Amino acid sequence: MIKYVTDYRAETGDLVDQCGEKAFGDHVIRKEIPPKSTRTLEINDCFVHQEAARAGFRVASWEFVADRR
User: Fold this and answer.
1) In 3D, which of 30, 28, 37 has the Cα closest to residue 61?
2) Residue 1 CB: number of other CB atoms within 10 A?
3) Spatial CB neighbours of 22, under 8 Å, sequence gap ≥ 6
4) Which of 5, 20, 33, 41 is deepest in the core (most CB within 10 A)?
5) What's the gap between Cα 37 and its chain centre?
6) Quick one: DSSP state of residue 49?
7) Is 1 helix (H, G, I), strand (E, B) or coil?
8) d(CA 68, CA 42)
9) CB 4 within 8 A of CB 21
10) How many C-beta atoms lie closer than 10 Å to residue 17's C-beta?
11) For the CA atoms of 31, 37, 42, 44, what is the dihedral angle to 10 degrees?
């Protein structure tokens, strides 16, 4: 389980919007990523502020989930 935060900034660098763990509490990626592997994921975050010129993505926390099979 991976919790993430996205920041949206104006051309001036000012923060205009933020989505993710701190803003809503439940922006979680619920996909399996096996050890020593990579996976490409599509994130559908939130409505982007009209003044946003740049976006940032960061992992806020992660948790190892044991094999449940």
Assistant:
1) 28
2) 11
3) 5, 60
4) 20
5) 19
6) P
7) coil
8) 24
9) yes
10) 19
11) 50
The whole-model pTM stands at 0.68
Buried b / exposed e over 24-42, threshold 16 CB at 10 Å, is eeebbeeeeeeeeeeeeee
Confidence (pLDDT) at 23: 47
Confidence of residue 24 (pLDDT cuts 50, 70, 90): very low
Does residue 50 come out as left (phi exceeding 0), alpha (psi in the -120 to 50 range) or beta? alpha
Q: List strand residue ranges (DSSP E) for 1-69, in order.
A: 2-9, 15-20, 28-29, 54-62
CA separation (Å) from 2 to 16, 25, 61? 24, 12, 6
Residue-wise pLDDT for 26-61, tens only, equals 678 888 888 899 999 888 776 778 899 999 988 888
